Amino acid sequence: MKYLPAILLLSFSAAAVAADDTPTLYLQHCAQCHGPDHLGAAGPALLPQNLKRLKKKAANEVIAKGRQATQMQGFADKLKPAQIQALVDYIYTPLEKMPVWDMVTIRNSQIIHHKHGSLPDKPKFKADIDNLFMVVELGDHHATLLDGDSFEPIIRVPTRFAVHGGPKWAEGGRYIYFLSRDGWVSKFDVFNLVWVAEIRAGINARNLAVSHDGRYVMIANYLPHTLVLLDAKDLTPIKVIEAKDSEGNSSRVSAVYTADPRSSFIAAMKDIPEVWEINYEDDPPVGFGKWVHDYRPDSGEETEKERFPIRKLRLKGILDDFFLTQEYDQIIGSTRGGGAQVVDLDLGRAVAKVDLPGLPHLSSAITWPRNGTTVLATPNIRKPEVTVVDTKTWKVIKRIPTQGPGFFMRSHEKTPYAWTDVFFGPNRDLMHVIDKQTLEIVKTLKPAPGKTSAHVEFTKDGKYALVSIWDMDGAIVVYDARTLKEVKRIPMKKPSGKYNVHNKLTRSAGTSH
Q1: What is the 3-state secondary structure (H, E, C) of 426-459?
Q2: Could you give the CA distance from residue 215 to residue 202 in angstroms, rounded to a whole number?
Q3: What is the pTM of this model?
């Protein structure tokens, strides 16, 4: 399968264009690959919401000079500087009316590369499937399947443009699901090293979750305001759920997670004070998400059960970001205006407040046992600190000063250390290593001076820690997790997240879920 993963993949016109009308320029040079409606085709969508990671100045340069390692060619010899700038301004201008992206549109986008069940059930390579990593390389829109024992790449494949939100493993590592900013869901067969199915579930997507039984995939969308449920076998759409409250207020969906013990998806709303729980059992609990007077089977209260029922938990404030406890019975979410609240999913209400100022990155928080309790530690996007909280009392135990705000934090059950980056600011090349019992920084690493260090992930046995160097001339740096000495450096193109089969599928307390 071939992708065209250019950041602004503009098509050529045979003749030089003298038109000064910007919509005409767009239709002549951009529409073939990005669609006349700006929603994307072979190239990505050109909407302000989808281009937030690309500054206007950088977009101007890409149109003028093209982009290396893609099919985007420069237009400096065909368009005047003023025309290029006009195109930049045009694609960063919101559309007057957003197109519909409904069930029919989603279904029509489906691509089946290999029919489900048509490929061999044995891997084409020798490796411990449980210790594989999938590394997302943002630099040139590729992903590398990495052997976690030898630290040798098995295969490097092109992905859709701007994959993000964390690919999700399923079925013991046989499959992994990717999501692009443009809403493309792509299913990769790891055993056979091929893409098997794709579908576009939205226009601007946030992340995806896979049910613990491997049967369903749920997509969270910013545009349109929907959750989309897919059949995991071939990504056939099952249901489109509009994100609206009982008053009809619409919301972006900021994230969706899988709560394994509950057999449900948990969805975070960006614009309304609610958290949703969507049950995916074949036989959902009686009255799930509804008022029921009598739960006895013979009461006649409910004769027919609805598939994929929704519980809408109303809150006192909007949760921008949240963390699910290891038991999946509570969530802790940051609220606008500061602070955080704990919501009990069984009780359906907030049960505690937590003193977390700034902007804690709770979706990257981790937990571990300490002094007879379980503590939660979270980095902070706005404050140079890691905050450690007792999950029994929800009181802050310690604020660990860092050399700048952080984004990712990771650990493993078999290591004494927690690792956190200094993602923002002048010290972004640092990585702090924290003793999980003393709560002191025991070492600060500098894997690549002047280059951003981020996103640690461990091998399945916790013996090695892998750090990403976020740079086009980047790498995965492998450290001995006990001695903190560098073991190996694997060159890559701006590697971001790396995801270990065992740690993700066992829901390790040391990694995000």
Answers
A1: CCCCCEEEEECCCCCEEEEECCCCCCEEEEEEEC
A2: 20
A3: 0.86
